[in-house]
Design a protein that fits this description.
Blueprint lengths: L2 E3 L5 H7 L5 E2 H4 L7 E6 L5 H12 L6 E7 L10 H7 E3 H4 L4 E6 L15 H14 E7 L1 H11 L4 E15 L14 E10 L2 H5 L4 E7 L3 E7 L4 E4 L9 H11 L25 H17 L8
Parallel strand pairs: 1-2, 1-4, 3-4, 3-6, 4-5, 6-7, 7-12
Antiparallel strand pairs: 8-9, 8-10, 10-11, 11-12
Length: 302
């Protein structure tokens, strides 16, 4: 797809090696169409990895997309250089007067903290409030989903007895729903978290719909009643090596993290991980872009 991103973004070379089509800015300007404007609020510490993961999925569509990265600038980013942030990222102050067709709010490794104790919580609340008037559809991921459900609907998160870690089987409430059009009856999503959003809290809220569920991982995909907000507690965007890297990182820190479930063949970390979520991940993002962003957004924002 014609994904309009800065010409020297590190993700470009990585994705070209994977044979993923990327249109750079100069070529995109030659197409006489109005691109979808998508903003990515990147809360993850390894921002370049996260950028690449989301660009990979957003590239699987015939639509042209103009992608803006922004971050919470009051939080000191220790894992991404200031140079990279200055070149490729905006702050919320720089974009708050704009209107976007779609917004993605990523996860963040802060789920052990109460929401109000996160150092950028107030700023993120401003972003989430702004999204209701300036964005056609907002997609919230993992902790970003928990944050959105808490801020907009008062849904709490709860600690799990141990880390939910692996790739888990899910089902959908209605596979004729546009978000799941073309999905298999059973699909897989990676999860990596220490807290949960309880299915009964979602089901008991009149403004929310639980549309994707796992017996092991619990509530996974939730939509608002008007479908303008989508919440995913897992990580469709994870690349094949992400869970492996997290596992090795935890082990190096002396944590008693179990081997991620349903990920390594024969449950053996020495073997190459098996990817079981790629096809439906691409389909999920293509459906979100088409049916929840492109089909719903005005041609020109007033």
């Amino acid at each position: 797809m014609p994904l309009n991103i800065p010409d020297n973004l590190p993700a470009i070379d990585i994705l070209r090696e994977e044979n993923i089509f990327i249109m750079e800015q100069e070529r995109a300007k030659m197409q006489d169409i109005r691109p979808l404007r998508i903003a990515l609020c990147n809360l993850m510490p390894l921002k370049i990895v996260t950028e690449t993961d989301f660009v990979r999925l957003l590239s699987n569509s015939p639509l042209q997309i103009e992608l803006d990265f922004f971050y919470m600038d009051k939080h000191d980013s220790k894992n991404t250089s200031k140079e990279h942030l200055n070149i490729f990222y905006k702050t919320f102050e720089h974009i708050k007067e704009k209107r976007y067709d779609g917004l993605i709010i990523t996860g963040a490794p802060v789920e052990h903290l109460p929401f109000e104790s996160v150092d950028y919580w107030e700023d993120l609340c401003k972003v989430m409030n702004w999204s209701k008037t300036n964005v056609t559809n907002t997609l919230h991921i993992c902790w970003g989903a928990q944050a959105g459900l808490y801020h907009h609907y008062g849904i709490e998160k709860y600690p799990l007895p141990q880390k939910l870690f692996g790739v888990f089987e899910h089902t959908v409430s209605d596979n004729k729903m546009p978000l799941f059009r073309g999905f298999d009856d059973i699909f897989y999503v990676p999860h990596s978290r220490y807290t949960e959003t309880r299915a009964e809290d979602i089901k008991n809220h009149p403004s929310l719909n639980l549309v994707g569920y796992s017996e092991k991982a619990g509530a996974c995909i939730i939509t608002s009643a008007d479908h303008s907000q989508v919440f995913v507690t897992g990580h469709f965007e994870y690349n094949p090596e992400t869970l492996k890297a997290e596992y090795l990182r935890d082990k190096s820190r002396g944590l008693n993290t179990a081997i991620p479930e349903n990920y390594f063949p024969e449950n053996n970390p020495q073997l190459q991980p098996r990817v079981s979520w790629r096809a439906n991940a691409n389909l999920f993002y293509m459906n979100w872009l088409n049916y929840y962003v492109y089909q719903e957004t005005p041609y020109e924002w007033l």
